[in-house]
Write a structure and sequence with these properties.
Strand content: 5-15%
Radius of gyration: 24 Å
Strand order of the largest sheet: 2-5-8-1-9
Structural class: alpha/beta
Helix content: 40-55%
Amino acid sequence: MSSFEGSDRYIASDDLRLAVNAAVTLQRPLLVKGEPGTGKTMLAEEIAAALGMPLVQWHIKSTTRAQQGLYEYDAVSRLRDSQLGDDRVHDIHNYIKPGKLWEAFTSEQRSVLLIDEIDKADIEFPNDLLVELDRMEFHVYETGETIKATQRPVVIITSNNEKELPDAFLRRCFFHYIQFPDANTLKAIVEVHFPDIEAELMRDALEVFFEVRDVPGLKKRPSTSELIDWLKLLASDRIAAQALKGGDIREALPPLYGALLKNEEDVRMLERLAFMSRRSGA
């Protein structure tokens, strides 16, 4: 199988490429952490595309249970059908709904399985999947069958660090933390999305963007995805782009700041910063 080298749409650092290929070689889940908006979910999509594999996505919510990733048995529907005399009731398979692990395990082609934002679920969620991810099989009690991976999927697990993951789960993963891109890497990422962007606009926007990120005490620092949104707006608004020239967040909020700042506390913080700076310079 070929190795992952990134793609035209996804700028992967050397460390990230090494982590992906190491996890594939070791046949262990790759646990990816990093700030929201640093491309963790997109990584799985690009691995699947680069390696020519189907992608199975399991997006985790606070109410998601581990069992749902295996299968769900609809006992209520079966009871109702039995009361109505429906012939479907004689085949219990009609009431078994395969989950995402089932889908990945039984895929005709080796697949990439994304378990996205695992830290949103209950603390016991990761431990409840330990055996299944280790052995790549699980038992369906209602039918007595065992679902076993015909080809071991490449498992990518993302976390935003909302809660700590159990040690027993961490031991079974290959871990990588996606560092926030430096200026040169971020420039390359922007050029993927906006190949024709004006160099002056790029320079001015990145300068202000990093100034905002460096403000101490921000509740949520703007991420790569927010920079992309902001640049899209700036590229289509010549007045805002002009206002960016020589901009200083110590004097005024950046134009179209709503694409960068996502809560009122951070807006007020930058407003206070600008006010104090103007007052001291008066």
